[in-house]
Amino acid sequence: MAGTKSESRNLTNSNKPSALSNVYLFIYNFIQVLGWSYLLYQVTQHYMAGKSTDTLWTEVKLTVLVFQNAAVLEILHVAVGIVKSNLMLTIFQVFSRVMVVCGILLATPTAPLSNGLPLALVAWSVTEVIRYLYYALNIVSLVPYLLIWCRYTFFIALYPIGVTGELLCMYAAQKFVGETQLWSLTLPNKWNFTFSYHYFIIYIMLLYIPLFPQLYLHMFSQRKKIIGGTTQISKKKSS
Questions:
Q1: From CA 64, how far away is CA 75, in angstroms rounded?
Q2: Of 30, 35, 58, 74, which one has the fewest beta carbons inside 10 Å?
Q3: Has 166 been annotated as catalytic?
Q4: Is the pLDDT of residue 200 over 70?
């Protein structure tokens, strides 16, 4: 799901990461900025060349797989303590996007043909360029106000666009999965267990109903505190 990743980096002196950790985090975030910027360039060039959505996934697949799956490292960052955040929330937020990429777009031939694909890719790319650049510059305490404003304003449009794109891709995928029984297990079998990937996708789609409004409203709350309040962003290193 296109949601805030809630990575609070306001560390106390006793928990302050080492200089080596900061160098690593800066490099990780900066590489992600480059990767998502390149993806945005690929999508833009694709449509400027007059190509259709039918061939978009073929051109961007490798970039999406590399840089989206690299976000799994963020779970490790929290687990080992170099980034302070809620571990379970981080796991959910990372794997919800990995689910869309690997479990939907990569697994089914119909999802990449959906009109939801360009919506998701553009929303993801712009969001992630801003987010990772914010994190990288925050490490060296050089976050300009314009970037702060973008981070806590652009989500107003980007989150609904991204969620719409993800849901459209899932909808296209679930019809294919229902017809082919992809990754499904029916009785009888030696494990005496049944699993429907078709219904699992529908379940994930339904989860957006209670979860997306919570994440969306949380970002509005953060926006009010950081842009609308008196707190200095240099001391408020949270997302």
A1: 18
A2: 58
A3: yes
A4: yes
Residue 190: CB atoms within 10 Å:
5
Range 128-153 burial, b when 16+ CB lie within 10 A, else e? bbbbbbbbbbbbeeebeeebbebbbe
Rounded alpha-carbon distances, angstroms, from residue 113 to 2, 23, 102, 118, 194 = 20, 40, 15, 10, 29
Asked if residue 239 has pLDDT above 70, the reply is no
* Cα torsion 111, 112, 113, 119: sign: positive
pLDDT of residue 16: 62
Cα 215 to its chain centre, rounded Å, is 13
Nearest to 65 by CA among 104, 114, 28, 25: 104
Per annotation, catalytic residue among 132, 159, 197, 216:
159
Model pLDDT for residues 2-49, shown as the tens digit of each residue: 554 444 444 334 456 689 999 999 999 999 999 999 999 999 999 999
Are 86 and 6 contacting, i.e. CB atoms less than 8 angstroms apart? yes
CB 234 within 8 A of CB 144: no
- The 10 Å Cβ neighbour count of residue 35 is 20
| Alpha carbon distance 162, 143 (integer Å) | 25
Least confident of 174-188, 194-208, 221-235: 221-235
CA 74, 78, 84, 87 torsion: positive or negative? Answer: positive
User: Considering 166, 171, 179, 199, which one is annotated as catalytic?
Assistant: 166
Could you identify the residue written with the tokens 């891709």?
A: 169
Token pair for residue 99?
């689910």
The predicted-structure confidence for 162-192, as pLDDT tens digits, reads as follows 999 999 999 999 999 999 999 999 888 888 8
